[in-house]
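User: I'm curious whether this sequence folds into something compact or stays loose and floppy. Could you predict its structure so I can see for myself?
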Amino acid sequence: MKPSSRLAFAAFVLCTMLAGCAMDPPLPPPDPIETAVKPTKDSVLRSIAMDRALEDRILALNPDRISEADVADTLSKAPAPHIMLLHGGVYPVHVMMESTGKFLVKMGYPESRIRNPPDGRWSYSPYEDSTHLAGLLAWYYEHEGVRPMMIGHSQGGIQAVKILYDLAGQWGKSLPVFNPYTQSVLDRTTIVDPLTGVDRPVVGVVLSLTSTVGAGGMTLFMPNQWSMLDKMYTIPDSVVEYTGYAMDLDPIGWKGTYNANGTAVVRNVQLPFGYNHLTTPYVDPLAVDKAARDWINAYNPAGPNPDPPQGSFGYGVFWAADVWWDVKKHWALEAQRLIRAKRAALGSS
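Assistant: Here's the prediction. I'll summarize afterward.
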């Protein structure tokens, strides 16, 4: 990381730790009806407020080639999956995932689909009950109709894969639904599938995307992660696509290769030499640097990609670009899936 980037990072961490320093504004208060009412058959589909022309534009998008104009003019008007950010286990490493969340918002993702409703926090701890987080993701799918995503850093990446195993039924045949607004476990282990209207168990819910960076390695020997020692690098069927980012000379996360044990599509991405285990997710300054932003928006993992601009050196620009490409892709795919389900159930008018 170049000296100016180190100074910016140090200032960011210090600002977060000091009382009274530039706090994020609170989210709008929740709708009381949204927090309490269980959806009914077709209620989510009927709530989609998009006209035929917008739906057609969304369906016409190529998920692998989403431009900045596509995000601003079309995708920003589509339902967006909730993104659960999971930070590492050592204070104040949570500021890294706050930076990731702010990067995604500056690039065009809705803030309300990232921050936690009751307290506005950007990310979740790897020490939280993974079954609660799995039930929370199921609640979001039930109420929003688009399958959520997860992005995990360090121990937060281990937690993300643990949640996938919870949803796959690895440690139990049932999981309770968890309400994000009341922060309480509900007295049910099923949801109304928003696309079919059929009651279904939380176990078996599939997420659209999960990605991790710096996950595994020596942190697997932490007592709260022992259950993942033989599972971390094998991805179950509870996610459509998984992307695992590896760094050379990472003394904490090491370097593992991820594989699927079934239908999940798994990508292993090697980040350039010199990426740092701690600071790679600190990327929100890239979204306000025009040259870096343009490069990120044009990036495609299939390539070819030119070298990133000079001003992005010292930041995890390749990681930021690949994550944003993944998020845009699955945002488009989930919106398209929802629109097709709506037209099949309610007609195309």
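Summary: The longest helix spans residues 317-346. Residues 277 and 285 are 18 Å apart (CA to CA).
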